[in-house]
Amino acid sequence: MILVTGSTGAFGSAVLTKLQEKNIANRAVSFETSLDWNNPETFEIVLKGIEKVFLISPPNFVDFDKKIVPFIEMAKKEKVKFILLSTLFGTEKNPDSTFGRTEKIVAESGINYAIIRPNFIFQNFINYDIQSIKSGRIYLPTKNSKTSYIDVNDVANASAVILEKPEKHFSKTYTLTGSESLSHQQFAETFSRVLDTKVINIAPSNKEYKDTLSSYNLPPELVDFMGALYAGIESGAFTTTTNDYQLITGKYPITAKEFVEQNRLIFSD
């Protein structure tokens, strides 16, 4: 039995779908339902009878490393055999971040493990930027910097492969990216060609972008988080591509063009 945490989020729900497609027994939990990271008393119930865990932090948890300590202890008590931890692209450069500390805790837990570090996912264009793209523009403060986006379904496919036969992946860390690194100008051109409508890239300054988010009455901490995230893209921190997805699955990740083609109706309705 595989425990899928974050099962209502972008990554967890995609992993859950892949496991269901493979008819692999699973238990889906999320922060909104039966797994309360602020209440360790919920850990024993969700871990009962579990052999493997897909572990991912809820959004914007700045102290996830502290939350998982009692979870790991309960996992050991319940004789969990394997943990697949999903963190972030570039975590190795920030070992003192919550994700860096979480990786260390899992690696030193005594439970067999593997780690995946996905880059930005194509689905961000749907989850966060859909209305902007429908209005004919990409509005992100990245200038000409590039990002090696990957499809969330490819991340889920790699995760399911690892979870199905984890022995091949013990103690390994994978950085999951697409096969191409593109600027948002190139994305705008791809949207324009595939959707047969003009999409332009507007690259505001980081301040202009954050001011725009603030005008939507978003929480200040979220505005700052998004600003920092895209400042990272602007600095070129997310450009690298790897072949880790191919190493795990034997397949190639989908391209930006294929992603837009597959979701044409969503962007055009």
Quick tags:
269 residues; alpha/beta; Rossmann fold; UDP-galactose 4-epimerase, domain 1; 2 domains; two-stranded parallel sheet; 13 helices; globular
According to CATH, what is the topology of the largest domain? Rossmann fold
CATH superfamily of the largest domain: NAD(P)-binding Rossmann-like Domain
Which blocks of ≥5 consecutive residues have pLDDT under 50? none
| Tally of discrete structural domains | 2
**CATH architect. name of the largest domain:** 3-Layer(aba) Sandwich
Number of helices: 13
What is the H-and-E element order? EHEHEHEHEHHEEHEEHEHHHHH
Going across the biggest sheet, name each strand in turn.
Answer: 2-1-3-4-5-8
Oligomer: single chain
CATH class of the largest domain, please?
Alpha Beta
Main sheet summary: 6 strands, parallel
Radius of gyration: 19 Å
Give the CA-CA distance, first to last residue. Answer: 39 Å
Q: What coarse outline follows from CA principal-axis ratios?
A: globular
The overall strand count is: 10
SS content category: alpha/beta
Structure write-up:
There is one protein chain. This protein has 269 residues and is α/β, with parallel strands linked by helices. The chain has two domains: 2-118, 3-Layer(aba) Sandwich (Rossmann fold); 120-149 and 177-239 and 254-269, UDP-galactose 4-epimerase, domain 1 (Alpha-Beta Complex), CATH 3.90.25. 44% of the residues lie in helices and 14% in strands. The protein has 13 helices and ten strands. It has helices at 10-21, 43-47, 64-77, 98-107, 124-127, 130-134, 152-164, 184-195, 206-215, 220-234, 244-249, 256-262, 264-268, and strands at 2-4, 26-28, 52-56, 82-86, 112-118, 137-139, 146-147, 173-176, 182-183, 200-202. A six-stranded parallel beta sheet has the order 2-1-3-4-5-8, sandwiched between helices. The protein has a two-stranded parallel sheet with strand order 6-10. α1 (10-21) links the parallel β1 (2-4) and β2. α1 packs across α7 and α9 (206-215) packs antiparallel against α10 (220-234). The protein starts with a strand and ends with a helix. The relative contact order is 0.13.
